[in-house]
Every structure is written in C-alpha cells, then in structure tokens.
Amino acid sequence: MNASMLPHILFSCLLLSVQAQNCSVREIIRYTKRLLVSGSMLDFNDQSFHFQSCLCLPIAEPGHELACFVEGTEHMLKNNISTAITARLNLTFQTQLDRHLCESLARGDQCRYKTKGNVKEFLNKILRTYQAINK
C-alpha cells in the first residue's frame, strides 16, 4: 500500500463510521430483532401480531427505504403492533428522513415499492437494510 493512500483510506473509514452512527444502525438492528423474536414467540396465526395476515406493509425499492419504513411503522402503530418499540423505530426513521441522514436510504421523501408484505417480511427488510450498512 502506498503511504499517500493512507489518509484517503482513513478518511473513507471515518465517513463510513459517521454514516453508520447517524443511521442509528445498532439501535435499529436491536429493536428490529426484538420485534422479530417477540413475534416468533406468538402463534404466527395470532391476529394480534399479524405475522401471517398481510397488513400490506411496503417492501421498499432501493433508495426509498426510509420513507417506506416510516409509512410501514406508522401502519403498525395504527394496528397496535408492539407499540413501544415500533414507536421508537418510527421516530428514529422519521428523524433520519427529516434530517437527511442515511442518504443512501432516502433519495426522496415518498415511499416507492413494488410489493407489499406482512410484518415479518417488513421487519426482515429493515434488518437486512441496516445490517448491510453495518458491514
């Protein structure tokens, strides 16, 4: 490795670290996993958690994740799905969207999606998205 490349590499690592911190990656991953675990402890046919029934939550297209995560968590809150954790996730997503954090997930403030899914599919989309940032 060339010594002149070292400052560039360190700066790139710093930028990635700041982006991950601004995106609240660890917090979102932790809360999403908690929701997935609490849902798996219930019978998947239990209408109170809607794992099998389709709430028809948006499965976002790349670049529109934040807007869809806001929309989806708002829909979950309206249906009383794990309200405390869901409310925290919703607030975090809304803050990221409003403050233009996690820019790769928010090319616009409109939710764009091709498919919709149930709560489990929606939560797995959130988890995969933030785990990819965390790498």
Automatic annotation (TrEMBL):
Name it. Interleukin-9
In terms of InterPro entries, this protein maps to:
IL-9 (IPR020447)
Instruction: Write out the GO MF terms.
Output: cytokine activity; interleukin-9 receptor binding
Q: Name one GO cellular component term.
A: extracellular space
Extract the signal peptide range: 1-20
What keyword terms does UniProt attach to this protein? Signal
High-level lineage: Eukaryota, Metazoa, Chordata, Craniata, Vertebrata
